[in-house]
Amino acid sequence: MSATIAAAAWLEIVEGPAPILLIAPHGGRAGAAARAALHPKVNDLETAAIARELADRLGACALINSAMDRNELDCNRLGQLAARAPWMLELIASRVEHMARRRGRAIVMLIHGWNVIEPRVDIGLGLRDHGAHLRPPAGAHVSASDDFISGPVSAITERLDRAGIAATFGMRYPGGARQNLLQAFTPRHRASDIPAVRRLAALAADGAVDAIQLEMSVAVRMPGPLRAKGIAAIAESFRFAHGDDRGSRHWIENIERNLRRARRNPRSAAATRAGRRAVRRRADPVWRGILRRRRKRWRNRQLRSRRGRRRRTDHDSV
Ligand SMILES: [Zn+2]
User: Fold this and answer.
1) Domain 11-242, what architecture?
2) Where are the domains of the chain?
3) What is the pTM of this model?
4) Residue 50 predicted with pLDDT over 90
5) What is the mean pLDDT of the chain?
């Protein structure tokens, strides 16, 4: 086994106020290790730039591997990180802990490239689509809560779909393999002998972390309108993670306005996309639940801020 690799210029660290951590584990470039290998693995081209852009739009933190060849160090494999770059696992664990402490929860998003051409994003949550059900493959743990899946994740799929990008769940990459970095954000490795991995598993067991792996096809990664639409679809689905009252108020008001319109005039509602969506949501108990919870959360926040209690945490909710 090669020696430990020091924290170096290949890992970019982006700071941001939102409780979101983006990681691009395979954003590096082919180097000597790739040339020496008989079947080198392809690095995920453009994922470093995409993670940078997403971090900027979301106000997120990001750990971006922009130069390390995955054939030399695979930052998506827990064993390799533990053996050769344990400081990176420490960095991840301390970031996620900090977010969870300050904001009650953290979102982790792993940005990867899938080398198919057509516009697609395969979503990894430790789940695979079996027609009517999503089920974890053998041994896998699910990396996100039901709320997270029926909230922002379903919003992503809906937005991608509207942008002409097919979204699937674990079609090729469920993110369920034991060594996959995604599994570090589940309770799976509670008994791991790596302290940072144990700390992450404990947070996940407390429900304090939701993690998602996005495998973006070539068409979605190459600079151009599809990439811009894909990034917008993801960024807009996570606006609420900012803890921004304005965002969630507008979101609720918008949906409620569309619902009212749909109720008043079903025929004209059926003629618009927003109207059809509103009708669909009204009939869907999951959406009704999301709306109810969001409304409650927003009202509670308003009450709190009215009492002035928010003053001492104001610097946290930029
Ligand atoms: Zn990858």
Assistant:
1) 3-Layer(aba) Sandwich (3.40)
2) 11-242, 245-311
3) 0.76
4) yes
5) 86
What's the 114 CA to ligand 1 centre distance in angstroms? Answer: 7
Counting Cα atoms < 13 Å in the Cβ hemisphere of 207 gives 4
Left if phi > 0, otherwise alpha if psi is -120 to 50, otherwise beta: which for 169? Answer: beta
Report the separation in Å between the CA atom of 88 and the middle of ligand 1, taken as the mean of its atom positions: 17
Q: Give yes or no for a contact between 297 and 248, defined as CB atoms under 8 angstroms apart.
A: yes
Q: How far is the CA of 262 from the centre of ligand 1 (A)?
A: 43
How many A from CA of 203 to the centre of ligand 1?
24
How many Å lie between the centroid of ligand 1 and the Cα of residue 240? 27
pLDDT of 113-154, one tens digit each? 999 999 999 999 999 988 878 899 999 999 999 889 988 999
Question: Residue 253's pLDDT is what?
Answer: 63
Give distance in angstroms: CA of 297 to centre of ligand 1.
Answer: 36
